[in-house]
Amino acid sequence: MTEKESLKAKDISIYPTIAEPKALRDVVENDIYLLGGQVAILCQFAHPALAKGSYKHSSFAERIPQRLRNTARFLNVAVCGTEEEKKAIFSVIHRYHSRVKGDDYTADDPELHKWTAATLFVSIIFVRETFFGRMDRAEMENLLRESAVFGTSLRMPPEMWPKTLEEFWEYWDYNIATLEVTDMARSLAKDLLYPRNLPMGMAWTLPLARILTVNWLPERLRREYNLYPTLASQAAYLAIVAWTRTVYPVLPVALRGRRHQIYMEDLKKAVERINQTGHWGGV
């Protein structure tokens, strides 16, 4: 293999994951789980390296719709994509990550990928247990194993992923107690919660998402981000939960997965552009 071929292979390679993401497919195909996106991102930004990478290497405030679309490409291809689709999308993600680095951080750090995957796993639990009831241990253990795919797709070695729920929650609680929410993270949080230039199809959900996010965010991070639930927001949260538990299950399946279908169509178009031009466009 030539040096050029070796670099190309490295650009698209990912680790094999721990478990086939069968249960996760039901998650990404169900649009309600998108409501956990903000709390996952705020937990990610609590890691100073992740916050600094986003703050210094992306015009985050101006590009939130594009960032959300790119994140959707990653989540959907990791869980639902074909091998060809994974090869194409991950080649772009890994190439971008290779450029995001500084004296004390790099987007290729597998520890950051582990933390990203952990926040996605916990955000799924928040949505699942809030609207559909408590998960039993076997279900949560299975979801933990499958959620490793979020890290391994970003080149986290699978042996880094917690093997048990006890190991995971020890890791999670330690990070929540010790990670530093920087001024960069607080600036990014403001842009995330009060974004500009969102299309109307997304903007109408923002007040709802903010209420859920503030009530789901771990207490210490709420303090660090200066986000405090008011009595009004807590009452609104309880009303939203009660209404959703009643209404959501009777919605047509096609409606519950409409956003997912849009993202899958976008994913396929992005793969076509990558195969033609080497990039997905719209970043």
TrEMBL record:
Residues 30-245 form the ER-bound oxygenase mpaB/mpaB'/Rubber oxygenase catalytic domain. It comes from the Eukaryota. InterPro entries: MPAB/Lcp_cat_dom. This is ER-bound oxygenase mpaB/mpaB'/Rubber oxygenase catalytic domain-containing protein. It comes from Aspergillus lucknowensis. The lineage of its organism: Eukaryota, Fungi, Dikarya, Ascomycota, Pezizomycotina.
